[in-house]
Amino acid sequence: MSMLTIKNARIVDGSADAPTDPVDIVIEGDRFVAVGKGEAAKSGAGDTLDASGRIVMPGLIDCHVHVIATTANLGLNAELPNSWVALKSAELMKAMLMRGFTTVRDLGGADIGLKRAVDDGLIDAPRLIICGKALSQTGGHTDYRGAHSNRDVSWYGDKLGTLGRVCDGVDAVRRVAREELKNGADYVKVMADGGVSSPSDPIGYLVFSVDELKAIVEVAKGFGTYVSGHLYDDAAINRALDCGFECIEHGNNMSERTVRRVAEEEAFVVPTNITYDILAKEGAAFGLPPESVAKIEDVRTAGLECLTMLHREGVVMGYGSDLLGGMQPHQSGEFTLRGQFLPAMDVIRSATLDAARVVRRSDIGAIAPGCYADLLFVDGNPLDDLALLTEQGAHMPLIMKGGAAVKKAASV
Ligand SMILES: [Zn+2]
Fold it and tell me: Per-residue pLDDT averaged across 174-189, rounded?
């Protein structure tokens, strides 16, 4: 098996407010096998890299992406040919990898075919964690028909370009959840509130009945996994927690009381502020319909205010970008946006150690023996300047995924 030792690595992973003293990192095959002082001498043979003058970080994890969202017009995206969407998704994913994201969790759309293409090395892309299609009710967040059509939507399930499937009633939601898990979903995603990028669901719409939500949770837990909910509104979030949801996506409009409950019950929250910031600025130009543009401001400001509360109450947050189509190059902008409200150490941890907790993976997000050898070299210290993690990986001369360099500058 191939051996590689990285010498003089000063690690920043969000667990401390300063880089570690220089250590050696030993990689065997696709995993870290040793991290510490003097490990280079013990490991003996193999290639070496010197990280002197740079910072070494674990590969980043984005806990909320949509790799199949080739445009912000999700109704249009749903109609696109599967083959075209697959090829475009590969391009979008490669760009994520080149920004330093070695793992991404897809929150609706990506299927087992894309996941296998990544695992088999057919495409250069981040490790993919999927829910298959999200579950939405009629008139919910992935029902794109609007007020002018009741045409059948059973075809959504077979289109790669759809984020979700429409299902109503306890029996139907149970079957669809079971199907998605059968089809390789790692967890179940439920559109449990209204949303911005869909036509007929106001924010705060209590979608699905309590019985439907409980049935979905029962299926997921029975399978050994969890349910994550697309949620904004306080009442919707409390209802989802009552029903057993373990992860809250967005969470913009939470009251202080609800934030405390989330902390007490140790649920995870994945704020996605950058998407509202960019949607407000560029959404219309990128195809977001006018009825969606009108919903943005309600959630944008509240989401930023919520960050401070979540931090104060000790809620574990995952890094989330949630960008659609041509706005995806702003993926790393969540770092600097959160950095205006939270310490850099905590922002970084949301994309490393805490992100791994959110996506339930103990083998990523850390530079530690047994974990996948996903790491970055950064020119400069992101604890001092989070912008070093932006600009499409410009400050990352080395990006490694599973022990293989996917980017290596001549200076490394
Ligand atoms: Zn999303």
Answer: 98
Reply yes or no on whether the pLDDT at 203 is more than 90. Answer: no
pLDDT in tens, 343-385: 999 999 999 999 999 999 999 999 999 999 999 999 999 999 9
Distance 353 CA to ligand 1 centre (A): 21
Does residue 313 form part of some domain?
yes
| Residue 383 domain boundaries | 3-58+366-408
Distance in Å, CA 61 to ligand 1 centroid: 15
How many structural domains are present in the chain? Answer: 2
Q: Tell me: do 230 and 374 sit in the same domain.
A: no
Both 92 and 162 in a single domain? yes
Beta-bridge partner residues of 5: 26, 48
In this predicted structure, what is the pLDDT of residue 40? 80
Residues with beta carbon < 5 A to ion ligand 1?
Answer: 107, 322
Do both 159 and 298 map to the same domain?
Answer: yes
What residues have CB less than 8 Å from 108, skipping those under 6 apart?
66, 131, 133, 134, 142, 163, 164, 189, 191
Neighbours of 263 (CB within 10 A): 17
Measured in angstroms, how far is the CA atom of residue 66 from the centroid of ligand 1? 6
Residue 8 Cα to ligand 1 middle (Å): 39
Residues 22, 82 within the same domain = no
Q: Picking from 244-253, 264-273, 283-292, which range would have the lowest pLDDT averaged per residue?
A: 283-292
Q: For residue 15, give the CATH number of its domain.
A: 2.30.40.10
Query: Are 29 and 66 within one domain?
Result: no
Convert the pLDDT of each residue in 5-56 to its tens digit: 999 999 999 999 999 999 999 999 999 999 999 888 787 768 999 999 999 9
Are 197 and 130 members of one domain?
A: yes
State pTM to two decimals: 0.97
